[in-house]
Predict the structure.
Amino acid sequence: MQANWAALEQAVAHCARCRLSASRTCPVLGEGSQKSGVLFVGEGPGREEDLCGRPFVGAAGQLLDKMLAAIHLKREDVYIANVVKCRPPGNRTPAPDEAAACLPYLRQQFVLLRPRVIVCLGATAGRAICGESLRITRDRGVWRQQKGVWVLPTYHPAALLRDPAKKREAWEDLQSLEQKLRELEEKPL
Ligand code: URA
């Protein structure tokens, strides 16, 4: 257990808990506001993210920035992380044992961030956070509360790039997120 961000960053920088560490260039812990209370979780770094050590900087990241802008947020206003911190070769889906090996780092991020809202981008994040029975096409857009935290599964931006027909539902999810953030603002902790 890492008690602070610096210790967590060090642990991830030197991590060799799974095979993904052997092929990574840079691990990607995450970035953004450590105080906003809003956490977005993706799947894992892609090629661009692996090269620079930052999350969501490639095509999917550019779409994520636009999605945030549509609800008047910037990436600096939220925290962005992934289920796995190292790039799966060829951008394949992380294997269950890789996700499991990396999950303690995401858990530690929850502890340090204490988010009020978590947005799961895609099935990998949704399953890691909500449980293996999650089906993204069925469960997206439906809020659930887990240990006092509001959780919203929605499509991964890469899925929206592959299938623009999903954008209408993704837009509904974003509006629902904006509404939830407004409600929470009216109800300070
Ligand atoms: N896709 C993800 O899930 N995470 C990233 O950081 C980039 C692309």
The chain has nine helices and six strands. The domain at 5-186 is CATH 3.40.470.10 (Uracil-DNA Glycosylase, subunit E). The chain has one domain: 5-186.
